[in-house]
Write a structure and sequence with these properties.
- The chain is α+β, with helices and mostly antiparallel strands.
- The chain has two domains: about 50-95 and about 205-340, no CATH class; about 105-200, Alpha-Beta Plaits.
- Helices cover about 65% and strands about 5% of the residues.
- A four-stranded antiparallel sheet has the order 2-3-1-4.
- α1 crosses α10 (about 255-300) and α8 (about 200-240) runs antiparallel to α10 (about 255-300).
């Protein structure tokens, strides 16, 4: 029996050392710092924020259509009063004639001045600086008009000669009292001129009436604008109170004042826009309704006068002013209550 010899220790095969594991490469950090979002991303976020605020304001106004309509209607009536008075003043000024027509200078010629002299003087005056137009009325034409208007036609026929002189009516370029006086003096020095008369009383009266009207409209505008700011401020304050809890939560999570303020500013601007549209429509309808009676009255006096409607420029100015008033009123209301809604 053969015995099995155990191998020597030196002859034992030593296990091969494991291959060295290469060290894991650490992720290299970027050498440059992150510059943040670019301009396009910021612009997109800004547009999206304003869009969402506008949509939210429209949605909330749409939930209360009757209340929103009456708020806009109250604002529209307050806007229509001063604007309507201003338009009526413009029509009154146009009805009274132009300023140049009201400040005509009447030049009375000598009784011995012929029609040729009057025509030549008219042409000479037309060429003068500061004169817009000149019209010659002969003595015969003046007597005929006087007979028709006075009702003394038969009595005037008994006169041995025509007592009325020829007249040249001069219309100046502009209405300025010193310039008109200088022009009257220059015309009075012309040959064959008996008298040059300037009726400045009508000019001064017309200027005083229009100035009074402008001041009245300005004072009424200030009062109604103040009332509008109170109306829009009170309306926005009610919306703020209805969203008090929501605003407090937004402030707790870090919402800025501008973020909280933005929907209410859009709401005020929308109220103003609606009020401007309604006011424009009220003025257009009111002037058109009143124009029928004015045309009938003017026709009785042989005039073709008619009220002018709302010009496009005035309508757009009214609309822009209403939007600005709504925006300013909302800003004042939010600025007043925003500090009260800050979390404690």
């Amino acid at each position: 029996m053969s015995a099995t010899r155990s191998p020597k220790v030196s002859e034992r095969v030593a296990p091969k050392p494991a291959d060295p594991v290469p060290p894991k490469k650490k992720k290299q950090r970027q050498d440059h710092d992150d510059d943040g979002p670019d301009f396009s991303a910021l612009l997109s976020a800004w547009i999206e924020s304003h869009r969402s605020s506008l949509v939210d304001s429209l949605r909330r106004l749409g939930k209360q259509p009757i209340g929103s309509f009456f708020t806009c209607l109250v604002m529209a009536i307050a806007l229509s009063l001063p604007m309507g008075l201003s338009l009526l003043l413009s029509n009154v000024e146009r009805l009274g004639g132009s300023w140049q027509r009201a400040a005509q200078i009447s030049i009375y010629l000598d009784l011995d001045a012929s029609t040729t002299d009057g025509t030549r003087m008219r042409d000479e005056i037309k060429a003068m600086p500061g004169v817009a137009d000149a019209e010659y009325i002969s003595s015969i034409q003046a007597l005929s008009e006087f007979q028709q208007q006075s009702g003394l036609g038969e009595a005037l026929k008994e006169l041995p000669e025509n007592p009325l002189p020829g007249v040249v009516l001069v219309t100046p370029d502009e209405v300025d009292k010193p310039a008109l006086e200088a022009l009257r003096t220059r015309l009075a020095e012309l040959p064959k001129v008996q008298q040059a008369q300037l009726d400045l009383v009508w000019v001064e009266r017309l200027a005083a009436i229009l100035k009074l009207g402008d001041r009245f409209v300005f004072g009424l505008t200030v009062l109604l604008v103040s009332a509008l700011l109170l109306v829009i401020g009170n309306t926005i304050r009610l919306h703020i109170e209805n969203r008090r809890t929501e605003i407090e939560v937004i402030k707790l999570v870090g919402g800025t004042d501008s973020y909280v303020r933005r929907p209410f500013l859009y709401m005020g601007a929308l109220y103003g826009f609606g009020a401007g549209i309604l006011s424009w429509g009220v003025l257009a309808y009111g002037l058109n309704w009143l124009n029928g009676a004015v045309v009938g009255l003017a026709g009785l006096y042989g005039s073709d006068f008619a009220l002018a409607g709302v010009p496009m420029s005035d309508g757009l100015s009214l609309l822009l002013g209403a939007v600005l008033l709504g925006y300013i009123g909302a800003w004042i209301a939010v600025a007043r209550h925003l500090r009260e809604l800050a979390p404690r």
